[in-house]
Design goal:
three-stranded antiparallel beta sheet; 8 helices; 16 strands
C-alpha cells in the first residue's frame, strides 16, 4: 500500500487496472477538459486503460451516488417535494441500470456514467442539506410497473407537453405517454433559437444521396407527418431547385444544426441571410417521463406531494421500497 497527496495517471502508463481507496474526499482533474468539469468524490476509484483512454470508475453505495445526482439534476432551492420526486426518479433509474447494465453492453463493467446520457453526477461537489433530506425522506423508494423496476426517464422541460417513448425511441413504454402539463399550472418554458447554413446542409444531403447532382437545396420544411402527436419533430423534408420534395433523416439535419435542446421546434427563413435558416423552439430534453420544471411547478403552485407528482408523470406505477436489511 502507498499513500499519495497527488497522483497523475494516463492510459499509456497503466499496464493493468488499479484500485485506489481514499479515506477522505478527493478531486479528480481530467486532462483536456475545462477545469469546471473537475469534481470531488468520495469512496474508491477503479482505473483501467480502455482503447487508449483512461477510464475512472467511482465505487460508491447507492445513497452516496444519489447525493451527487439530485443536486446536479435540479435546483437545490426548489420545493422539497420536487427534490423528493427527483430523488425517487434518480434512485429508480439507478436501480434499473444496476440490474440491467450488462444488457446494454457485455464489456461494460460500470452501471451508469456521470453525464446526462444517464444522470448527471458530480460526486461530493454540490451536496446540500436540502437534497440530502429529500434522499433520506424517500430512502429506498423506487417505482415499479407490474412488479418490475422501471427506467424512470425524465427531462428538464417538456415545453408544455410530455412525449410518448414510442415516438422518440420506437419503444413501447406504457407508463410514459404524451400528455399536456397539468392544468392551472404555469410552467416556466425554455425558449431557444439556433441558425444553420443551407449551403452546409446541401453538402451533407448530396453526400448522403438525398440531393441529386445538378440540383441545389432551395428550402427545408417539416412535413405534417414529420411530427409526433405532441408536436415534436421526427423527420424533415427538403425542396430542391426543381421544386421536388424529399424526406431525409432528422439525424442528418442535427449533424448540421448541432445538438438542439428539444425536438419541439419550427424553421423559418432568416431575412438577414439568404443562405441561412433559423430554428426556433421550446423545451429542453427528449420530453419522455417526468418534466423537472413541471414537477417544480406542481409542488410550488399546486402543493402536490412527491407521490402525486410521480403518479402524474409515470402512469399506473407503484411506489415500492428496496429491502435494505
Amino acid at each position: 500500500q502507498q499513500k499519495f497527496t497527488k497522483l497523475e495517471l494516463n492510459a499509456a502508463g497503466l499496464p493493468r487496472p488499479v484500485l485506489i481507496r481514499c479515506s477522505q474526499p478527493f478531486k479528480l482533474v481530467r486532462a483536456g477538459v475545462p477545469h469546471t468539469n473537475s469534481f470531488s468524490y468520495s469512496g474508491a476509484l477503479y482505473l483501467r486503460a480502455v482503447a487508449g483512454e483512461l477510464e475512472a470508475i467511482n465505487l460508491v453505495d447507492l445513497n452516496t451516488y444519489l447525493r451527487g445526482v439530485v443536486p446536479s439534476e435540479v435546483y437545490r432551492d426548489w420545493p422539497l417535494e420536487t427534490l423528493k420526486t427527483q430523488a425517487v426518479a434518480a434512485r429508480t433509474y439507478a436501480v434499473y441500470h444496476l440490474i440491467f447494465a450488462h444488457r446494454f453492453s457485455t464489456d461494460r463493467i460500470w452501471d451508469v456514467d456521470d453525464t446526462i446520457n444517464f444522470q448527471a453526477y458530480t460526486g461530493t461537489s454540490f451536496i446540500s442539506e436540502k437534497t440530502d433530506l429529500a434522499i433520506a425522506s424517500t430512502e429506498g423508494q423506487i417505482l415499479t410497473f407490474r412488479g418490475n423496476v422501471i427506467q424512470a426517464f425524465y427531462h428538464a422541460d417538456s415545453g408544455g407537453q410530455t412525449e410518448d417513448a414510442l415516438s422518440v425511441w420506437s419503444l413501447a413504454i406504457p407508463f410514459t405517454v404524451a400528455r399536456p402539463e397539468a392544468s392551472e399550472v404555469e410552467v416556466e418554458k425554455s425558449v431557444w433559437e439556433r441558425s444553420f447554413s443551407i449551403t452546409q446542409l446541401e453538402q451533407e444531403l448530396r453526400a448522403g444521396g438525398y440531393l441529386e447532382a445538378g440540383r441545389s437545396l432551395k428550402s427545408v420544411v417539416i412535413p405534417i407527418v414529420g411530427r409526433s402527436p405532441s408536436g415534436r419533430v421526427k423527420s424533415m423534408a427538403m425542396i430542391d431547385s426543381r421544386g421536388q420534395h424529399k424526406a431525409f433523416p432528422l439525424s442528418l439535419f442535427r449533424k448540421v444544426a448541432g445538438q438542439l435542446p428539444s425536438p419541439l421546434f419550427y424553421i423559418e427563413r432568416d431575412p438577414k441571410a439568404s443562405r441561412s435558416m433559423t430554428i426556433k423552439g421550446v423545451g429542453f430534453g427528449h420530453g419522455v417521463g417526468m418534466s423537472q420544471q413541471g414537477a417544480a411547478a406542481l409542488a410550488g403552485q399546486k402543493s402536490w406531494d412527491y407521490k402525486q407528482i410521480l403518479s402524474y408523470y409515470y402512469l399506473n406505477t407503484t411506489l415500492c421500497s428496496l429491502d435494505t436489511a
